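Before the break, one more example. Copy the sequence into your notebook; we will annotate it together after we see the structure.
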Amino acid sequence: MFGIEYPIIQGAMLWLSRAELVAAVSNAGGLGIIAALTFPTARELREEIKKTKSLTDKPFAVNITLLPTLQQINYEEYIDAAIEEGVNIIETAGRSPKPYIKQLKDAGVKVMHKVARVKNVKTAERLGVDAVTIVGFEAAGHPGMDDVTSLVLIPLAVDAVNIPVIAGGGIADARGFVAALALGAEGVLMGTRFMVSKECPLHPKIVQWLLQARETDTLMIERSIKNAARVMKTDFAQRVLEMEEKGATLEQLLPMISGDRSKRSYISGDVNDAAIACGQVVGLIHEIPTVRESIEGIINEARLIGQRLYKIGMPVERG
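Here is what the structure looks like once it is written out:
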């Protein structure tokens, strides 16, 4: 469907999913995704698409996150910019993509939509998207409010729809990759794994800090505003949680959870100046490979896992 070699997709990470990382993923056989809202204007998104094209001749996508914000965002302009620059794969996330489906389909775009609940998987199929990504409770960013793990959500989603399901949350190596495929997914989405890679524009201090993190070093914030987010467990994140427990309003929380704070932190390396989105799978990450090393390592080890399963009596078709 996407014209890629391996069913491995890079999660769209605000401020981080820029040309260098996106092109590295696509060049290694996966699907890189530009996070459109990293760029304040559609014109700047156009420039980033052009830059990505200068670094790869492989397919890549653009993510359009449809979330409520204080400032008005003209999503149609971002979509038009991507289409006019020749991007034919677009990922939507957050709210329903219904208002933009005709615009996307008329342009011949393949549409992925990312959700956290099975009922939203069904809705996405009904709207006409080409593939849907389901993210489990383990995932970084916004994994929904239901606290259901990927191990349960993936087969539920696969059973619920006829379109391809992409699995996200808790996947960073060949074991997670093979498990997701065994559960019926057609591919996987990885964010945290690519966050800790040589091509990711994240401050080295934060990268080294993440290498020391355990699977228990994340927590959930923003539940009070029904936009639960998994972030690293820091003094800053604990302050946000305490504010929520004391009944803070959205207006009071916004200065703490704004994307601009994350951008500053990613540049400065100060882990206590913003909420740092990260998945529980950080506990499995102990090195900083190139993107190509990550993807090729997953594929090579997946073949070894297949051989091991074959040896214990689980036949694999040869062809």
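The chain has 13 helices and ten strands. The mean pLDDT is 94. Try to locate both features in your own notes.
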